[in-house]
Amino acid sequence: MSAAGEQRQPYIRIDKVTKKFGEFVAVNEVSLDIQRGEIFCLLGGSGCGKTTLLRMLAGFTEPSAGRIYIDGVDMAGVPPYERPVNMMFQSYALFPHMTVEQNVAFGLKQEGRPAAEIRQRVADMLGIVRLTEFARRKPHQLSGGQRQRVALARSLVKKPKLLLLDEPLGALDRKLREHTQFELVNIQEQLGVTFVVVTHDQEEAMTLATRIGVMNQGRIVQVGTPHEIYEFPQSRFVADFIGNVNLFGGRLIEDEPDHVLIDSPELGGQIYVGHGISAAPHAEVWVAVRPEKIQLSRARPPAPHNCVAGTVKEIAYMGDMSVLLLRLDNGRTVRVTQPNTWRHADDQLTWDERVWLSWHESSGVVVTQ
Amino acid sequence: MNPGRWVVRAVPWVWLLLFFLIPFVIVLKISFAETALTQPPYTPLLEWGQSVYPTIKLHTANYLRLAGDSLYLDAFLNSLKVAAVSTLLCLLVAYPMAYGIARAERSWRNVLLLLVMLPFWTSFLLRVYAWIGLLRNNGLINNTLLALGIIREPIVMMQTDFAMYVGIVYSYLPFMILPLYANLEKHDVSLLEAAADLGCRPLRAFLQVTLPLSVPGIIAGSMLVFIPAVGEFVIPRLLGGVDSLMIGRVLWDEYFLNRDWPVASAVAISLLIFLVVPIMVFEHFQARARAAEAQ
Amino acid sequence: MMGRRSWFVFTALLLGFAFLYVPIVSMIVYSFNESRLVTVWGGFSTKWYGQLLGDEQLLGGLWLSLRLAFVSATLAVVVGTLAAIMLVRHGRFRGRTWFSAMVTAPLVMPEVITGLSLLLVFVAFAPLPFMPGSRGFTTIMIAHATLTLSYVTVVVQSRLASMDVSLEEAAMDLGARPAKVFLVITLPLIAPAVASGWLLAFTLSVDDLVIASFTAGPDTNTLPMMIFSKVRLGVTPEINALASIMVGLVAVAVAVAGLLMARQERARERDMHAAAAQRP
Prior knowledge:
The complex is a heterotrimer of chains A (about 375), B (about 300) and C (about 280).
Chain A: E1 12-21, E2 24-34, E3 39-43, H1 50-58, E4 65-70, E5 73-74, E6 85-88, H2 100-110, H3 115-128, H4 144-156, E7 162-166, H5 174-191, E8 194-199, H6 202-208, E9 211-216, E10 219-224, H7 226-231, H8 236-241, E11 246-255, E12 260-264, E13 269-273, E14 284-289, E15 295-297, E16 307-317, E17 321-328, E18 333-339, E19 354-358, E20 365-367
Parallel strand pairs in A: 3-8, 3-9, 6-7, 7-8
Antiparallel strand pairs in A: 1-2, 1-4, 4-5, 9-10, 11-12, 11-14, 12-13, 14-20, 15-19, 16-17, 16-19, 17-18
Chain B: H1 3-31, E1 46-47, E2 55-56, H2 61-68, H3 70-103, H4 106-117, H5 124-135, H6 140-148, H7 161-185, H8 189-197, H9 202-213, H10 215-230, H11 234-239, H12 247-256, H13 261-294
Antiparallel strand pairs in B: 1-2
Helix pairs in contact in B: 1-13, 3-7, 3-10, 7-10, 8-9, 10-13, 12-13
Chain C: H1 7-31, H2 47-54, H3 56-89, H4 96-108, H5 111-125, H6 137-162, H7 165-173, H8 178-207, H9 210-215, H10 223-233, H11 237-276
Helix pairs in contact in C: 1-11, 2-11, 3-6, 3-8, 3-10, 4-6, 6-8, 7-8
């Protein structure tokens, strides 16, 4: 078969998987294809089903319906100790009565590998996570970040086809989290293992993932790269879930291939979006405009649409940027962020000032659900 | 289900079935039998006569005897009374102790708990025996009081209800302290601090905050004392009066002295029927405590 | 040691402990009394201890009780641990409420009832091949194991429930089969509970009078049974000596265990402080 004709088989295929607990449907007909070597993030709030889905991949729960294929092999009825999958637990689950070395070696011992090979591989892995001098310590003698690295080493040393990570950065403090995010990505690229990460933290998802699957109430709502999810949300849920967003509801007035015009009483004006959409005529739609895409000016902008007048109600100075909350004449609140480009500006906006908000025609995204 | 899991389940089930459930069925069966001079000394339940099907011979005379003879009823009611009073006394002694241990400094708590448990690990019988030595007419207490001139004649304490209550409270005290402690230890001290902050005096805070929250512990401990105390045999026998008959003693005597297995079984079943409700209450609180622990 | 409003509680604690220990202390003191009578202090003497060591009958009963306790405790620990695993790890299985009730009922059941019912079972099943034919060591052993396994289950269950389930899941995830997981991960971690369950079962067995009386054979005389018959006839200081030895042994064992645990705990805390202070 030629390379062109060869089908690109997804490495992990989740095929219409459903999981019910009695009457409650935790995972609802989820289908996903995950490619080899990618970092795929399942993102959602608590109770959305992401952890249940992860546990089904690991083999701790069996699906009520649907199938899971890993590297082409159907995983139905395969127990966790026979799957080519390893998991890094949220609590790290380090064996407290074993040393770091013994923890990392555990999986290799179960495979029955010769002692010399185990020693070598454990030493190599400890080197990668930079814990070589802690090999003989017990978990309670380690800090949180060190324990996490042991958990990572332990789950990677078996060279699994798939590594599952359950909220990997949740227990770490902010500085450590950022550092570890980059470290995780580096290690993954170095070893080429496929990652599936479960998290409720969108920052974590945006930093780690090559692709994100947003989940809500047991369903996958949107799949895409971080850029796609952020800039092209397909629903109000996704738009609102990731980052901050201003949503204006309205009715379609014009629907052309190259632009649409929406009348929005919520905004108090008309919204012009510079691309075509597929929707019914006069349909009810929403436009999502990210806070960083809105400009503020004292003078009224020339364009007839995508602008409205408002009053500055709150200013939160965050150091690198400022968050402003503006109140429109119709009572609606709009969130705007501005980078603090200058250390000291003479004409900075202040409270109760009257300004004009506006944005470019390409800045708004239309969502129909 | 993999075979390993099956073994894990089978062993306890079989054991409990064989040595817990079936025994009760057999006791029930024998309670409907008649005494006989056979080995074993009771008549069989099923009789194979001429016909194909066996006839069940239910001899209800045992139960009728229990109902008719006031001896049994009196013993039964007396046991209930003794158990209830003992439980109350035990609670009154145990609660301050449990409270004190729960409020003590962390490093002291384990030591205090061990001190509570230590007597429990030495022979129960020998400790009851020690009380005999203390309570006798020429025992330690009387001798000390006589020597100090507080009394002129020894106070009769042995073979009285008083001695019995002392013995029961003494023996069951750990069973009341531990559940109470387990409950009180989990109380959030900041609740009491909040109450004090809002102007509540300590006694009132105790009555309105601590006491209601400790009710599960009170009930668990009370069940752990009351239920076995109803059938208590040794302590009333050694320390109690001859006229204060307990149902545990009745069962013992029917079996060991009268060799009347059917009547002994009938007594056991009657006792069980009464205790079913408290046992269910106990189980209910056990389950609740387990569920709370799991969170 | 405690906060304010404590004098009442403190006094109650003191009185309570006095109540618990006065009988024990008096027993120990009088075991050294030269005179037989409690009224007279005849001087310090260890003759009762000597008499105790020479009392073959009593020592025989003690030896029987110890052997009985050892075997029944071990049996109770095996069955009780399995029952605890079922209740904690096997979730909602069929008949769970019944099972749970059967396991914990012996905790509260009056001993006369348990004793009688077990005896009747042994008598009824005597003709069956796998049952002990006559009543003796085996029957008491089974009876004690049945009674004490409830205590073991409660203790082990508590420890098992507080153990992080993800440790077992992690072991399975890394390739260990369930039996291996239990032996290498679970058992070491619940070992303290299993050990204290064993000790509890042992103590209860050595101490038991009522159930042993019901299920014993004509020639099996456990220590409590002997003491019970002696007590009714008349108290001898020999018994005091026995009690003192037991108290002494237990106190020493408890003290040693307590010190060991305290030292372990301090070392552990030191390690954790050191770990937290490190660079991440």
